[in-house]
Amino acid sequence: MDLCHVPAAREKGWYLALMAPNVKGPNYAWLDPSRLYCHPQGLQDCVADLLQPFQGDPIDMVAGIDAMGFILGAAAAAVLQKGFLAIRKAGHLCVQTAAQPYTDYSGQEKVMEVRTDAISPGLRILLVDQWVETGGTMRAAIELVERLGGAVAGVAAICIEDSEGGRWIQERYKCSHCVPPRLQPRFDHHQ
């Protein structure tokens, strides 16, 4: 799809066609959404679709997960006129942090950090990431927010896969994603 083309009928998820499949092998994610972010209307519609279920909900801050969650999270924060908190991979913050180990979608053990002075008790935080595949990364972010006394106002991602971790998150938190139900099985099976 041309990066300037906007379809006449823009139903939820039309911009998913902008994403590109993996051509580099098993060490990479199966699909790359970064081209979607280059399309001005695609990015706007994606963020609007992610935020639609939270309209009227009390949200104090948006947090994006390192690294691609920074793009959607910052865009969502700007639309909501809220502050943005970066939840980082360990070793990137030079201030007091809380850390949480996790296993990412590729099975690698990692550690996530967040600054301790940004979350006060009761602060309602919308967590945003690009993708929830196994749920390990998002669950670590949830644990950090809750350990510091914050409340998870919701979880938003382009796709929340129907995995054990994805189901765990959807059963416990209000969630939003961009994949229409008819396409969800294709995303769950990486087609």
From TrEMBL:
EC category name: transferase
Catalysed reaction, written as an equation: AMP + diphosphate = 5-phospho-alpha-D-ribose 1-diphosphate + adenine
Primary location recorded for the protein, binned into one broad class: cytoplasm
Transport in keyword set: no
EC number: 2.4.2.7
Transmembrane domains' residue ranges: none
Domain Phosphoribosyltransferase: 57-175
Record bears the keyword DNA damage: no
Keywords: Cytoplasm, Glycosyltransferase, Purine salvage, Transferase
InterPro entries: Adenine_PRTase, PRTase-like, PRTase_dom
One Pfam family recorded for the sequence: Pribosyltran
SUPFAM superfamilies assigned: PRTase-like
Subunit structure: Homodimer.
Protein family according to the UniProt entry: Belongs to the purine/pyrimidine phosphoribosyltransferase family.
Protein name per Swiss-Prot or TrEMBL: adenine phosphoribosyltransferase
Source species of the chain: Oxyruncus cristatus
Lineage: Eukaryota, Metazoa, Chordata, Craniata, Vertebrata
Record gene name: Apt1
